[in-house]
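sry for the spam today, last one i promise. struct tokens for design, 616 residues
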């Protein structure tokens, strides 16, 4: 039967084996309203199918093509328990392939949808609005001029085993709010923008293959309490996975990502678990997390206020992991980076930039980085522990295993640092410790502490093994101030120990310009049996011997250091007869300075010699 329009109302209707034609100007369609158990099958149509307020209806095996009027190929409104299966919908120039509005319990299966919309009037392959409990399975959607599937407030929907090809904008566009969306086992290829753009909560994106996207693979605006797992994403112009607008509680795991500008580019997000991903051949950063302050983070609803990055394999990028925390939220974060294998990065393996939360970087294997295995810049309150760092050995760039710049209160402990250009390089940092590390066969010094023009560096270096570093020179250099080297093992020291206490009889003098030394160098490698409790001797910094002072003066001294961190108290004396007798100024002083009144009569006191016993 060759007809132009068919309007049907009621139950148990069947529209089979018809040919619907259009003159290109008059709307031509099958319209079914208000009924149950209807079937529309095996029609060949230059017309659309429009249904509303139906239940238990089947739309199957139809061919819908060449619609040049403002109609969708199939339009469904206010209906439920609908099956749309094995239809071919092509060349719909002014409408969407399938539109579903305010409907639920629906199956869209095995449909072929292509050549939808025009450049001047872009359209979607499938458009969803205020619908739920949908199954969109085994469809092929290609050559849509806007989205493959676009949705607004669609919930409890599964999108599975679909093939998306050559979509002008996004393969899937599900802006928040959405929830309980499962996107799995789909293939996205040649997206001219991004493959998946989804917000909302309690969603899962898994086992998808995404390749050849001009912008991003997956973008996650306001995406929370959700998982992105076991996807393959490659050949992406921007980030393989990107989040923004304050995402919360995400798991990104077991994904394979290659050949993109960024692997993960996540912004203003909390409660992240990033684990067991393989990310390789990245133009810029494999895992990049930033806190810009541009979007409000709902940290009051955060479960842990933490970021966990563990057991990933990252190779061949500019930087392996980069965390930038330049806003007020970073000081509430807890960051854990552990168990990762990080290799062959042009600059840094791990980089923290102005991160003021608590951080712990431990049990990572890092090798072949072009600048630093781990770089900390402007960070505070963290631990770098039990990492193995090898072959950061580009002598042209003075590469180093660990770089500590402008950072405060960092503990670097129990790391194995071998065959790098420099072991640890410290600049502008203070109040940090380097303990129980092994520095082995690094081309230059195991540790270099550079100057800090604004503050005392106050770096503690204790119980480390220095073995065959900087051949022909000193194994550590100090250009800073008030640093303490104590109870370290130095393989190039003479190691004489007349009294057998495990401490060499002579200091180990460092390189640099401070004249600093390890005054208690160990004769054997550091072990559980190494001596642990010694104390350095304090010395007066100001005034120097032989000058005459009067009035109120601030006396300054280099603090004594107790290797077990017991608090040290000081007694301060002065002499006016070149040390033949001593007069106490003050006792049981804390700190490293004391303001004292040096005379009460016109005659000034002569501090020709100063003395400072100390006690712990």
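last one done:
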């Amino acid at each position: 039967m060759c007809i132009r329009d068919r309007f049907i109302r009621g139950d148990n209707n069947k529209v089979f084996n018809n040919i619907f034609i259009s003159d290109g100007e008059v709307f031509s369609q099958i319209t079914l309203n208000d009924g149950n158990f209807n079937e529309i099958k095996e029609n060949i149509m230059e017309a659309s199918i429009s249904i509303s307020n139906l239940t238990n209806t089947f739309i199957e095996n139809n061919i819908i093509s060449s619609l040049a009027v403002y109609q969708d190929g199939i339009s469904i409104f206010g209906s439920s328990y609908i099956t749309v299966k094995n239809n071919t919908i092509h060349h719909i120039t002014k409408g969407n392939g399938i539109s579903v509005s305010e409907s639920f319990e629906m199956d869209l299966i095995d449909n072929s949808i292509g050549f939808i919309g025009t450049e001047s009037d872009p359209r979607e392959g499938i458009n969803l609005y205020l619908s739920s409990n949908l199954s969109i399975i085994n469809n092929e959607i290609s050559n849509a001029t806007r989205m493959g599937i676009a949705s607004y407030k669609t919930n409890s929907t599964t999108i599975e085993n679909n093939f998306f090809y050559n979509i002008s904008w996004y393969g899937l566009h599900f802006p928040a709010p959405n929830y309980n969306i499962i996107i799995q086992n789909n293939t996205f290829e040649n997206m001219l923008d991004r493959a998946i753009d989804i917000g909302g909560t309690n969603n899962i994106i898994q086992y998808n293959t995404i390749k050849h996207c001009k912008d991003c693979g997956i973008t996650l605006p306001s995406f929370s309490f959700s998982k992105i797992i076991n996807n393959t994403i490659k050949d992406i112009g921007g980030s393989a996975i990107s989040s923004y607008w304050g995402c919360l509680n995400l798991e990104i795991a077991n994904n394979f990502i290659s050949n993109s500008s960024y692997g993960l580019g996540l912004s203003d997000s909390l409660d992240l678990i990033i684990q067991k991903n393989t990310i390789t051949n990245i133009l810029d950063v494999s895992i990049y997390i930033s806190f810009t302050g541009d979007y409000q983070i709902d940290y009051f609803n955060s479960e842990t206020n933490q970021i966990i990055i563990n057991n990933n394999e990252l190779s061949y990028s500019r930087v392996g992991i980069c965390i930038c925390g330049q806003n007020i939220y970073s000081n509430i974060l807890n960051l854990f980076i552990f168990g990762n294998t990080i290799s062959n990065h042009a600059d840094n393996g791990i980089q923290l930039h102005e991160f003021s939360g608590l951080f712990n970087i431990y049990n990572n294997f890092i090798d072949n980085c072009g600048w630093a295995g781990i770089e900390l810049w402007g960070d505070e309150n963290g631990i770098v522990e039990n990492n193995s760092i090898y072959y950061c050995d580009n002598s042209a760039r003075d590469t180093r295993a660990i770089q500590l710049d402008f950072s405060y209160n960092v503990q670097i402990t129990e790391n194995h640092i071998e065959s790098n250009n420099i072991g640890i390089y410290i600049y502008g940092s203070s109040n940090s410790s380097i303990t129980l590390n092994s520095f082995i066969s690094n081309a230059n010094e195991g540790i270099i502490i550079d100057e800090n023009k604004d503050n005392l560096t106050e770096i503690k270096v204790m119980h480390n093994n220095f073995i065959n570093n900087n051949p022909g020179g000193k194994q550590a250099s100090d250009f800073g101030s008030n640093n303490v080297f104590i109870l370290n093992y130095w393989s190039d020291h003479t190691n004489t120990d007349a009294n057998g206490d495990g401490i060499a009889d002579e200091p180990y003098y460092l390189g640099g310009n401070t004249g600093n030394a390890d005054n208690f160098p160990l004769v054997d490698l550091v072990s559980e049996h190494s001596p642990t409790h010694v104390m350095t001797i304090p010395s007066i910094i100001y005034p120097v011997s032989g000058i005459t002072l009067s009035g109120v003066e601030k006396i300054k001294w280099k603090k004594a250091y107790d290797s077990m961190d017991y608090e040290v108290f000081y007694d301060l004396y002065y002499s006016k007869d070149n040390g033949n007798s001593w007069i106490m100024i003050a006792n049981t002083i804390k700190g490293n300075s004391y303001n004292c009144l040096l005379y009460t009569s016109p005659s000034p006191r002569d501090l020709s010699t100063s003395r400072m016993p100390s006690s712990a």
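The CA atoms of residues 91 and 169 lie 18 Å apart. ok im logging off now
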